[in-house]
Design brief:
It comes from Rotaria sordida. This is Translin-associated factor X-interacting protein 1 N-terminal domain-containing protein. Keywords: Coiled coil. Strands 1-2 form a two-stranded antiparallel sheet. It has a two-stranded antiparallel sheet with strand order 3-4. A two-stranded antiparallel ribbon has the order 5-6. Among the domains are: about 40 residues, no CATH class; about 120 residues; about 30 residues; about 35 residues, no CATH class; about 100 residues, no CATH class; about 160 residues, no CATH class. It has 22 helices and 12 strands. It is mainly alpha-helical and about 725 residues long. It is flat.
């Protein structure tokens, strides 16, 4: 908001004869001269113009220079208490107590009415009618006050000075607020920093407290163990004391029983003597001669003896009730001494363990300091290492070559071990061009690394494969690995088309000869390409496609291995692609893809399905959903992605497990015939199809000339099963 500064002008009051201060008379010329100087103010880039002074000034002021004393000049109301009220038209009018609540209709000066009208209209236009702290409202009152100061020239110096002091104080307070605003922000920032440091200190203390608590729990556990041992010893001592007490009771009882027996024996002896004496006192008829006096004396003596015996028994019970036999006391004392010695030993062990704990705690602190020091040294060495790497020439990442050559990282590790950078580069160039690759896949070059210009013929006998029947040397075309793989893929494609149209009526060797004969148009070129294909498959035997093709071509493996795997992949792709058509762009979520695999591969375990889903996600790491079409895409070299490679590996694992079960069933047999193998397979897989079982039996016992062998050794059986279509979990769900 821009405010036009006001410059006060010195004015003097006109003094009359009656010493009454009056405003100087307002001349019409002054009104005309200042009519073009209308005041204005700006709020938020909006200019607001005040009315001209000649419009605001009342008519009464044109006639007299005195300040009107309204509302005190109203007749009959100068001494009464008056208040102001706001009318419906937005005017302030006085209300006197003598009017009994009625509005005072005494007219106010025109200048005051104009000022009030302008003030209320401006406040209403700016929307600041309520009496609240607002910059726009203050500016309106400031301009109105400036207009009043300009009009009352007599009081203009004083009012201007008052206004100027207020403006200075407001400016000073505003500057103070602006100065304190950065301090408030800095205070908030310092408060946040203090909170962060406090949380950091609390986290550090929390870790240390957790370690101390763990140490405390361990020590308390040791204390509890020692306490339990002490309690066990005390329990043993108490048990031994009870046993001694029981032994003493048994001893006392035995002693008493012995005494009773002695007394009984004495009584019996006395009775026997008495009976002998009585027999002597019998009469002729055998009747005892009784002497009353003797009987009385005997009774008295018996009672006396009884009293003495009872007194003696009472005396023995009173004096020897808690007495322990000496031998038992000595034995108990020896045991007690042993227990005390054991307690002392345990106490010594406890003290030693406490000292060891303290030593371990000290060593732990020292190790922590060493670890921190080593960590700092490690960071410094890493920084130096990075600086050295930045300054030195960067070395090639040779391990990445294992991802692009045939045989993978394992073969690259074998062929590149102990090789210089130049030798590694030569190996890579040979891989890409197909030259100089006569190795066994383990990095060992053959003795004759020179590729011959001509290939030796094998002859034209019946035992020679059809595509290799030639008696003349054949030119070596030096086919590259890519040429061989692409050529094999074309042969397989034509072979599958021919099988669908005419059935499999020819061997693979005959089909290859016809394939080259139809392509090149003459016998010599067809045989030449057959020799070059055979030679290249041997050279690139580390390639899976070349190796499988060569084994099938040489009769070592069943041709249905390729067709079975290819059909399984195509049928699975057909069903999953058909179901994924309902999703945008054929991309399905991982959960839905998991459900599809479970649905169409019911014989797979949950771990196998999860592994397949993980392989699909790994093959498409940057995709939120799985693109099904990309998973089953194949290049011109018949290479698939990670998903299909995992699927093939699971098929091979299933075959190895199946063969292992066959080994366990036939390991005790020297030879196996067709019937034994059939029974073994039926016991291992009761749901095997008859045509599948017949194919396995025929392939296993088939000789090179096409005849069937009556029996074979177990090792030969396993080798044939290894190279045949021999899977247990392979059927797709219908």
């Amino acid at each position: 908001m821009e405010v036009t500064p006001y410059t006060p002008t010195d004015y003097s009051l006109a003094r009359t004869d009656n010493n009454v201060h009056r405003l100087p008379p307002i001349r019409s010329g002054d009104l005309v001269s200042r009519s073009d100087e209308a005041p204005a103010y700006t709020i938020h880039n909006t200019r607001y113009a005040l009315p001209a002074p000649n419009i605001i000034r009342g008519t009464s002021d044109l006639q007299s220079g005195e300040i009107d004393s309204w509302p005190a000049n109203a007749s009959g109301s100068s001494g009464a208490f008056r208040t102001l009220a706001l009318t419906n038209q937005g005017r302030l009018v006085p209300i006197g107590t003598n009017l009994r609540g009625k509005l005072d209709t005494t007219p106010k000066p025109k200048f005051l009415a104009i000022i009030e009208d302008y003030l209320y209209s401006e406040l209403k236009a700016l929307g600041v009618e309520e009496s609240t702290a607002n910059e726009s409202r203050l500016q309106v009152f400031r301009e109105v006050f400036s207009t009043i100061i300009d009009d009352f020239k007599t009081y203009k110096p004083l009012l201007s000075a008052i206004k100027n002091e207020y403006e200075i104080m407001l400016t000073h307070l505003s500057d103070k607020v602006k100065e304190l605003e950065p301090l408030r922000q800095q205070l908030v920032l310092l408060s946040e920093q203090c909170d962060k440091k406090l949380m950091q200190y609390r986290n550090e203390e929390r870790e240390e407290i957790s370690l101390l608590k763990e140490e405390k729990r361990r020590l308390q556990q040791n204390i509890r163990q020692l306490t339990n041992q002490n309690q066990n010893l005390e329990t043993n001592i108490q048990r031994l004391q009870e046993e001694v007490s029981n032994q003493y009771q048994l001893y006392r009882k035995e002693l008493d029983a012995r005494k009773l027996l002695i007394n009984d024996a004495n009584d019996l002896r006395n009775q026997q003597e008495k009976r002998a004496d009585e027999k002597e006192g019998l009469d002729e008829q055998g009747i005892k001669k009784e002497d009353p006096i003797m009987m009385r004396i005997a009774l008295k003596q018996a009672r006396k003896d009884l009293n003495l015996a009872l007194a003696k028994i009472t005396h023995m019970e009173a004096n020897y009730n808690d007495v322990v036999p000496r031998r038992d006391f000595v034995a108990l004392e020896a045991k007690s001494n042993e227990c005390l010695e054991r307690i002392k030993e345990l106490q010594t062990i406890n003290d030693n363990q406490s000292q060891a704990i303290e030593q371990l705690r000290t060593q732990n602190e020292n190790l922590k300091e060493d670890i921190q020091r080593l960590q700092r040294e490690k960071d410094e060495l890493n920084i130096k290492n990075e600086n050295i790497h930045d300054e030195m020439t960067p070395r090639p990442s040779w391990h990445l070559a294992g991802e692009v050559i045939d045989g993978g990282a394992e073969r690259w590790q074998n062929v590149s071990t102990n090789k210089t950078s130049q030798e590694k580069l030569v190996i890579l160039l040979n891989e890409f061009t197909g030259g100089g690759n006569d190795d066994d896949g383990s990095g060992n070059q053959s003795q004759n690394s020179t590729v011959p210009d001509q290939l030796s013929p094998r002859g034209e006998g019946e035992q020679i494969p059809f595509h290799l029947r030639s008696s003349r040397p054949v030119k070596n075309r030096r086919l590259t690995r890519r040429d061989v793989v692409v050529l094999i893929q074309e042969i397989w494609t034509e072979r599958r088309i021919s099988d669908k149209q005419d059935g499999r009526t020819k061997s693979l060797s005959e089909f290859i000869y016809e394939f080259f004969r139809n392509r090149y148009g003459n016998h010599n070129t067809a045989v030449e390409m057959g020799y070059n294909l055979d030679h290249a498959c041997k050279r690139f035997k580390y390639n899976d496609n070349c190796q499988l093709f060569y084994h099938i071509l040489s009769g070592e493996a069943d041709e249905d291995i390729y067709h079975y795997t290819k059909n399984l992949i195509e049928h699975l792709a057909e069903r999953i692609l058909k179901e994924s058509e309902t999703y945008p762009n054929g991309s399905v979520p991982s959960e839905k893809f998991h459900h599809m695999l479970t649905k169409y591969l019911p014989n797979k375990s949950s771990n196998d399905i999860s592994e397949l889903v993980a392989a699909a996600e790994k093959e498409q790491p940057n995709e939120e959903q799985i693109s099904v079409a990309k998973l089953f895409s194949v290049d011109d070299e018949d290479n698939y992605g990670e998903f299909i490679r995992v699927l093939k590996r699971q098929l091979n694992d299933d075959k190895q497990s199946y063969i292992h079960d066959v080994v366990e069933k036939t390991e005790n047999s020297n030879s196996v015939n067709a019937k034994d193998l059939e029974q073994t397979l039926r016991s291992l897989n009761p749901h095997i199809q008859p045509n599948e079982l017949a194919h396995i039996i025929q392939w296993t016992f088939e000789a090179k000339d096409g005849s069937q062998k009556p029996s074979m050794s177990v090792n030969d059986i396993l080798q044939r099963l290894q190279n045949g279509v021999f899977y247990r979990q392979h059927a797709l769900s219908s």
